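Weekly puzzle thread! Below is a chain. First person to post its structure in token form gets bragging rights.
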Amino acid sequence: MKAVILVGGEGSRLRPLTIETPKQMLSVVGKTMLERVLIHLSEHGIDEAVLSLGYRPDVFIDAYPSGFACGVKLSYAVESTPLDTAGAIRFAVAHAGFEETLVVVNGDVLADTDITSLIGFHRSVGAEATISLVPVEDPSRFGVVPTDQDGRVTAFIEKPTREEAPTNYINAGIYVLELAAINRIELGAQVSMERSLFPELVKDGALFALPSDAYWIDAGTPASLHQASMDILNGVRMYGSKTAGEVWTDPTTEIQGQIFGNCFFGENSRIGADSNVHSSIIERNVSVGPNTLIRSSVIMRGAIIGRDCVIEESIIGEGASVPDGSFVLAGSVIARMADLEPGCRIVATRVPA
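Winning reply:
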């Protein structure tokens, strides 16, 4: 089966991490966000996907020069101008020449949704389009999707106020679409799934939805990216660690300090003497100096952390330099290749390069 993966956005909510890197190419516990999406699709029989690209398409194309990743054959549909969600899907399908029922996923959604069951439900009810739904506490940031007892969508309400939302089940960003639904979209036009196509399908009684209680997260903000990483590390996700205190290391990892809780260490990472790492992710080629504390944080590849530093509940971007005696705390985000001042104290702040 084939899929369209929407990866064209600029990732503005994740800045400064995405100033030069598309968000789907950020690492999430040793694999890019895109690779984690592809692994999930492959588990459900998807063997070919087209990436709908806009921002920095070269990064994706250069990363997978063979046209394969995680067992999935890839092609690339690069928009010259933004086409919005539905327009992007129509363009990608035409570019790839797909002519069958498709799965469509948002590339910043990390989920354990049972896509096989979603496809089966879609076919059993004869839908033109089917949406996976997930419950959330606050639906005001999402598209709310009430249904009847048969799963037919009765309305599609994009980002209602919390008080006006008729349900807390939201659009999970995972769809099954027939070509009939895709062909409703004008090729080359800027069209929204949420504001145009879905309401049209609701009007015609052709849109269905299936609730899921599987793991789901929109990893499009620093806080949710951090949470998604910790969920994999701590076994909340289906494919995460299941053992308390488990440490994932590569044979090239050198650890001279002490490790506490679930931790991940990528290849060629170095932890200096008398340093403590608690429940954190240390990506490949990271160097941590002596007597440094890292707690509940994500250190992206190639970052250099000096001696006598404290990093807690924060994200250090790729290749960033945190000099001796620095404190990075409370959800701070340090950009790719940023070079901080020695002895700095950064609290709940996003620091550009």
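Puzzle host: Confirmed. Bonus trivia for everyone else. The longest helix spans residues 84-96.
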